[in-house]
Write a structure and sequence with these properties.
five-stranded antiparallel beta sheet; alpha+beta; 179 residues
Length: 179
């Protein structure tokens, strides 16, 4: 008991104990940090999933309404196009009237079975060649939603819906495009 330890051993022992304590505290702190960060990441992920699902439901409801309106417009245009000599001025007026009532509609086009715009709520679109556009090539087969894009003004996100106009015996009379 009367032994005196050298100063270097005492310093070494104290430093060793401090080092072990630091490693233990750091390890426990790192464990809790990673555990808490994982919990936060999972919480953020679940909130993002919930928000995405909510937005999806809103968009689906909006698209369903848009689809319904496009189908009604297609049916009305079918009746007009089945007339012996359809009055394209009346068709253009109808398209303009419908487009002006909905601020989210940029324009409505009536595309011939051959793929050219024959009437539009935007008169500058009449004569446009749509033969290579998916809104025509897919829209003449069935209801078609094109990809999200910038509106023709370039300042708003937009998408188009096209639907075939069918006459007797499923004869293609044209395609209506609502953009």
């Amino acid at each position: 008991y009367g032994m005196k330890l050298p100063a270097w051993k005492i310093k070494f022992t104290v430093l060793f104990i401090l080092l072990i304590s630091s490693v233990l505290v750091g390890g426990v702190g790192a464990y809790h940090f990673f555990k808490i960060s994982r919990i936060i990441k999972e919480r953020i992920y679940s909130e993002l999933i919930f928000a995405a699902q909510s937005k999806t439901e809103v968009v689906e409801t909006y698209i369903d309404g848009f689809e319904y309106e496009a189908q009604i417009l297609s049916d009305v245009l079918a009746v007009k196009l089945l007339e012996k000599n359809p009055n394209m001025t009346e068709v253009t007026d109808l398209l303009s009237s419908v487009a002006s009532r909905a601020s989210e509609i940029a324009h409505i086009d009536l595309i011939s079975p051959e793929g050219f715009t024959i009437a539009s709520s935007d008169k500058s679109k009449v004569g446009d060649d749509k033969t290579k556009k998916a809104t025509y090539t897919e829209g003449k087969k069935e209801l078609f939603f094109n990809n999200l894009h910038l509106s023709s003004g370039g300042n708003k996100p937009a998408f188009g819906v096209s639907v075939p106009i069918l006459g007797e015996n499923k004869q293609l009379l044209g395609v209506v495009l609502v953009d």
